[in-house]
Specification:
It comes from Tsuneonella deserti. InterPro entries: Homeodomain-like_sf, Recombinase_CS, Resolv_N, Resolvase-like_N_sf, SSR_resolvase. Belongs to the site-specific recombinase resolvase family. Keywords: DNA integration, DNA recombination, DNA-binding. This protein is α/β, with parallel strands linked by helices. It folds into two domains: 108 residues, Rossmann fold (3-Layer(aba) Sandwich), CATH 3.40.50.1390; 37 residues. Helix content is 53%, strand content 12%. The protein contains eight helices and five strands. β4 and β5 form a beta hairpin. α6 crosses α7. The longest helix is centred in the middle third of the chain and has 34 residues. The radius of gyration is 28 Å and the shape is elongated. It starts with a strand and ends in a 5-residue tail after the last helix. The relative contact order is 0.09. The model has no long low-confidence stretch (mean pLDDT 88).
Length: 187
């Protein structure tokens, strides 16, 4: 079983020393590093670490937030490690997926994250339905109001082109063309 470390800081002003020292003290024989925002998908150090790991190895990190961009990403990475029979050890959270208790704890975290996502979706859906029931419609307000559409039709009837009418009303010609086409039967 080889212990392989991964350390990441978000900006060049931050130092990796604390993480690297802790990973060395934990017995990591090789440490991969990144200086990149956790939101970035292209983290060469992480990609190298994942490619380097072999069955039976353990990826050691300082903290969960150093590894995953989000809880979903973290769960995906750990799932991939499990499929490859590679463990994960977080020094700060004291979670080690090579032990039954560590796997249980990690999966509880994952279950809670999924529960939270489901609640957010449920609340959002309920909020949209409630707003719709009160007559509110989501999305952007139309650029071409009924008043602007009537003025555009008057300009066009006086001989202006759609482009000229749009310029006078300070709206895009494409939006005006679309409004004229979609509301021509309603007017």
């Amino acid at each position: 079983m080889n212990l392989i470390g991964y350390a990441r800081v978000s900006t060049s002003e931050q130092e990796l020393h604390l993480q690297v020292d802790a990973l060395r003290a934990a017995g990591c024989e090789r440490i991969f590093e990144d200086c990149a925002s956790g939101a970035r998908t292209d983290r060469p150090g992480l990609a190298e670490a994942l490619a380097y790991l072999r069955e039976g190895d353990v990826l050691v990190i300082w903290k969960f937030d150093r590894l995953g961009r989000s809880v979903r990403h973290l769960i995906d990475v750990v799932g991939e490690l499990e499929r490859r029979s590679i463990g994960l050890r977080s020094l700060t959270e004291a979670v080690d997926t090579t032990t039954p208790g560590g796997r249980l704890l990690f999966h509880i975290f994952g279950g809670l994250a999924q529960f939270e996502r489901d609640l957010i979706i449920e609340r959002t859906t309920a909020g949209l339905r409630a707003a719709e029931a009160r007559g509110r419609k989501g999305g952007r307000r139309p650029v071409i109001t009924p008043d602007k559409l009537n003025k555009a039709k008057q300009h066009i009837a006086q001989g202006l082109t759609v482009r000229e009418a749009a310029a006078r009303l300070k709206v895009g010609k494409s939006a005006l063309y679309e409004a004229l086409a979609s509301r021509s039967g309603a007017a």
